[in-house]
Amino acid sequence: MPHLDDTDVRLVDALCDDPKATVVALAQQLGLSRNTVQARLARLEERGTFLPFERRVAPSALGYPLTSFVHIHVQQRRLGDIVRELAGIPEIVEAHGLTGAADILARVVAASAEELFAVNGRILAIKGVDRADTSLSMAELIPHRMRPLLHRSPGPSGHKTLP
pTM for this structure? Predict the structure, then answer.
């Protein structure tokens, strides 16, 4: 995926301030033509710059106030089947393949401790899962964010400022 240029960064930064901003409002704010903003937004969307709206829905609003992180240890030869089974558990809202001691890190939401216990049981019942270590999230200390990266160039020391 190509990097965002300065105009794209300014546009995404403005959307961080007001995600519901109209194309006309963005154009006025950024000193660009409406057609330029519309074309840029379409290109950003086409390139997969924006995540699905689903990522903005808070699990707690759906009745799932508990969040936990489950390190899942699996038999590698069964990884594909295990991932398909995990995807069938609605409370698993995200999963990543890892290096290190565990093989998969899953973010799991639950309505209660009892439900979390049941979800853990479902994970452990999957053929090829050897162990699951669960940590309950006590508080979200730094919410998901991308804005600081908009103001930073890729690389160990690259900083930029928005025009």
Answer: 0.83
Instruction: Name 73's Cβ contacts closer than 8 Å, sequence gap at least 6.
Output: 101, 102, 103, 129, 130, 131, 132, 133
Q: How far is CA 147 from the centre of its chain?
A: 14
Q: Identity (one letter) of the amino acid at 19? A: P
Q: What is the pairing mode between strands 104-110 and 66-74?
A: antiparallel
Provide Rg for the chain, Cα atoms.
Answer: 20
Question: CB–CB of 81/128 below 8 Å?
Answer: yes
Q: How far apart are CA 39 and CA 29, in angstroms?
A: 16
Do residues 73 and 132 lie in contact, with contact meaning Cβ atoms separated by under 8 Å?
yes
Phi and psi at residue 21, to the nearest 5° = -60, 140
Asked if pLDDT for residue 155 goes beyond 80, the answer is no
Per-residue model confidence as pLDDT tens digits over 4-39: 899 999 999 999 999 999 999 999 999 999 999 999
Long-range contacts of 92-96 (CB under 8 A, 24+ apart): 92/119, 92/123, 93/59
The phi-psi region of residue 48 (left if phi > 0; otherwise alpha if psi is between -120 and 50; otherwise beta) is: left
* H/E segment holding residue 134: strand 129-136
